Amino acid sequence: MSKEKTYINREISWLSFNERVLQEAADPVTPLIERLKFLGIFSSNLDEFFRVRVATIKRIMKEGKKAKVLLGENPVKIFNEIEQTVIKQQETFDEIYRNILKELEKNKVFIINEKQLTSEQGEHVKEYFHHKVRPTLFPVMIDNLDEFPVLHERSIYLAIRLRKKSSSRTSKHAIIEVPSQILSRFLVLPEKDGNTFIILLDDVIRFSLDVIFSMFGFTIFEAYTIKLTRDAELDFDDDITMSFFEIVSKSLKQRKKGSPVRFIYDCEIPLNFLKILIKKNNLTGTDTLIPGGRYHNFKDFMNFPSVGLPDLHNNPMSPLPHKDLDTRKSILSAMRKKDILLHFPYQSFHYVTDLLREASLDPRVISIKMTLYRVANNSSVVNALIRAVRNGKSVTVVMELQARFDEEANIFWTNRLREEGAHIIHGVPNLKVHSKMCLITRKEKNGLAHYVNIGTGNYNENTARLYSDHSLLTVDKRISREVIKLFNFFVNNYKTGTYKYLLVSPFTLRKKLNSLIKNEIKNAQNGKEAYMIIKVNSLFDKQIIDNLYAAGRAGVKIRLIVRGVCSLIPGVEGLSDNISVVSILDRFLEHSRIFVFCNGGDEKYYISSADWMVRNIDRRVEVTCPVYDKKIQEELRNFLDIQLRDNTKAREITAAQDNSYKRELENIPVRAQIDFYNFMKGKIEAKQLDEKK
Q1: Which of 242, 319, 397, 484 fits a 20 to 30 Å CA distance from 39?
Q2: How is the beta sheet containing 186-192 ordered, strand by strand?
Q3: Is residue 434 flagged as an active site residue?
Q4: What superfamily in CATH does domain 525-692 come from?
Q5: Residue 252: is its pLDDT beyond 50?
Q6: Domain 108-305, CATH 3.20.20.140 — does that match?
Q7: What is the spatial distance between Cα 684 and Cα 501, in angstroms, rounded to a whole number?
Q8: Bridge partners of 110?
C-alpha cells in the first residue's frame, strides 16, 4: 500500500464524521423533531470546521512551496476536495430538510413562510414584529458606503433589494442583521384545528419589510439570506508589557474581524446583487462561496420549539441514582469506603456539585483545587467554589483561557473568582491545560487526606446532560500524590515531577501508550492472548497509528470506537486485518476516552481527557488515570461491550468512508446508549429489590 493511502486525511475524515450527523437527521429511527436538531448540529459543526480547519488550510496555502511540507499533503487539493464535499453534503442537507417538513406536516406541524400566512396569522406576526422585532433591527443602506459594515460571523443577514414600481430598473440595496442572538429564531403561531404553525424570524422580517422601508417610497422588496464565516484563530502579540489575560482579551476583539473563509448565500439571489456583495466584502477566488437555500444558521434548529405529539421527541431518560451515593449523606465519607465511578448523563452531574458544596461547608476541608476548561453559563461549579472561598477555604483554579470559543466566558469567570479571592492560574506557557481534575484536601485524625475527582469531560452541568462521560472519585494515594504533583507543576512550571501511575501529557503519555502497545505485540508474538479496546473522540497521531498497525500485523486484536476523526484505515489486508473501527452517533455525544489493554490476562484500564492526536499528547496537559477497582473495571467493560455490540446506531469506518450502518438483522437489536441506561437501571432495581427482602 502506498504511503498516501496509509492514512485518511484529517479534514476528509472530519467531513465523513459530519456526514454521520447528517445520517442521524435522515434516520427514521430518530424521532422527527430530534432529526431537525441533528440538522442543527450538522450546521454548527460545519461552522466550526470552517472557522478552524479550513481557516488553517488557507493560512498554510499562503506559505507557497512550504505548504505541502507543513500539511503533509497538497493543501490546494484538500481545499478543493473540501469544497466539493461540502457542496454535495449541502444538497443532501436540503433534501433531508424538505423530507422532514413533509413528515412534520403529516404530524400536523407546519413550518410556514411569510407568503403562506393567513390574514389572521399575518396580524399576529405584524403585532409581534412591532413589539418585539422592530426595536432590535438596524437596517443599513449599502450602495454609497465607502466601507462595508463588518458582518458578525455568528449572525445571518438579509440582503435586500429595494425598488419602486415607477422605476423598476433602479434598485437600492440594504442589509439587516437577523436578531437571533436576542430573539428566538422561531415564532410559534396560535394553534388552529389541532395544527401547529411555526414561522422563522427571518420570514417575520420579510413579511414586514414594507413597514421598514416604505417611508422611502419603495414598494418592491426582495430579501436573500447571507452568512459570512471568519478565521477563528487568535493572534497573540509578543508584548511583554501585557499579561496573558490581557493578550487573550485583545485577541478576542481581533477575531471578530478575522479573514473570511466561507460566504454562504441564497442561490436564488440575482447574480448582479451577489457580485455587489462579494465585492463589498472583499472576497476573493480563494474564499469558499457556497450556494445554499433560503435559510442559513441551521444551528438554531438545535433549539427547535417543543411542539407536536410526544413520539416526535426522544423518550425522557431521567438520570439514575448511583448505588453507592445517597444525596442525604456525605460523598466524602462514601469516597473513603471505595472508589466510585460516575457515568454521565446516565447519572446526574449533581453528584459533582454536591461534592463541591459539601467541601465548601465542611470545617475540616482546607483547600479545593480544580482545572476548568469549559463551564456552564451559570456555572454551579464556579458558584460552589465561590461559596468555598467565602467559607474560608483556599481555592485554586487553573483556568484555561484558550478553550476555543469559550475564551470570553472563561475571562468572565476568571474575573468573578478573582473578585471573591480565589487564586487563579492561567495554564502553562505553550501548553493548553485540558485535564479534568479536582483535589480536595481535608484535615483528619491521621493528617491531611486528599480526595480526587478525575474525569473525561468538562466540569459543565449543561453539557453533562448531553455528553457521555465518566468521572472517577477516589482517595487512592497512588493517584492523589501524583495529582498533587501536577497542581504543583501548574504553580511552578519547572517542577514537572515524575509520574508512575498517572499518564500525563506531554511528559509520559506518548511513551507509556507506546509501551502498552508494544507489550501487547510481545504477548501476541509469544502466543499469549493480546487485545486492545480503545474508545476516543479522534485518532490522528501517525506514530500511534503506525504502532497500532504493527500490533495488528503481530496478531493483536484491536477494537476501536472512534466518534469523529479517524485517520487509521481498518480492515486492509496486510496492514490492518486485525483492526476494526466503529463510530456511534445517537442522542448523546460520545465524549469519553477509555483504554483497555489485555496485558497478558491482567487487564489494565484507563480513563482519559486525551484523544489520540498530536496536540493532546504533545501540546496539552492531559491526564490519563488508571482504574484499579475490579468492580469499576467491570462497569467500564460492560459499557464498552454494549457499545461494540451496537447494531442500530453504530457505523463501520472503512477506507471507503461510506459510513455504512452496522445493521445485523439476524441479531437482537442493540442500541448502546439506550441499552446501557436500561442495564444500569436494572442493576438499581435489583439492588432495591434485595434491600426490601
Answers
A1: 319
A2: 109-112, 195-200, 186-192
A3: yes
A4: Endonuclease Chain A (3.30.870.10)
A5: no
A6: no
A7: 32
A8: 197
